[in-house]
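Deliverable D5.2: sample structural annotation.
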Amino acid sequence: MGSAQAYYDKTIALLERLRDTQIPGIEQAAELCAERIAQGGLVFLFGAGHSRMMCEEMTPRQGCFVGFVALVEHAVSNHASIVGTNGLRGPLFLEKYEGYAEEILKGFRFGPHDAFIVISTSGIRPLIVEMALGARRRGLPVIGIVSREHCERSPATHSSGKKLVDVADVVLDNQCPPGDCVLELEGMEWRTGPASTVTGGMLINMLRVEVAERLLARGVRPEVLPSHQFVGNASAEEQLDRFYEAYRKSLAHMYAGKGGEHA
């Protein structure tokens, strides 16, 4: 069996385990999100490094809807460079720097019905733990998306001694092994074949559709971002304008008051 087939099989096995174990947690998280969005709240998503892709998978994305806000901090969201300007060294250092998350959070005014999703496969970096602690301190419930095995087997690095699994109100397990990668190849010291993008994306989309269903059950119709590839489709263009306007209005409480401090 070739490596491509082996990677596929191992990742499918993780997805099957995710399906078999995570539905109750997804339903709990979806109920929390739907309840908050139905009351005019926002659900923020934060992830550093590669985990920020899960924030972008939630929104903006075809099929996404108003209520979710991707809080993507560019300084810790490496996109392409490895060395030199915007390379990996800076973001990896900032993830270990205590106090940085609080400065990010000070830029927002959070409402009484908001919630927070924090995404990190390891769940141990000070930036991640501090982001979750800061959200909780502001009264926001926290959903953590993490590799529970990696997080629980790794030593805490935040001065509180806490990890994401210790802080989150709801934990969704992306099922990835410690180190994320699933494939060992003879002649290579380290594994390859990371799987958290696949399993994390599955969790995000399972959560999204479950939230949509629960909003509809509450009589709240999600304002959806349609595909903008339907060129000349007047209905799609009109829906896109409705989405933009509804999204703009949903952010109003973030910028109310002075100094960006929370209420």
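Annotation notes: Residues 3-255 form a domain with the Rossmann fold fold (CATH 3.40.50.10490). The beta strands are 43-47, 68-71, 115-119, 142-146, 170-173, 181-183, 192-194.
The annotation will be released with the project's public dataset once the embargo ends.
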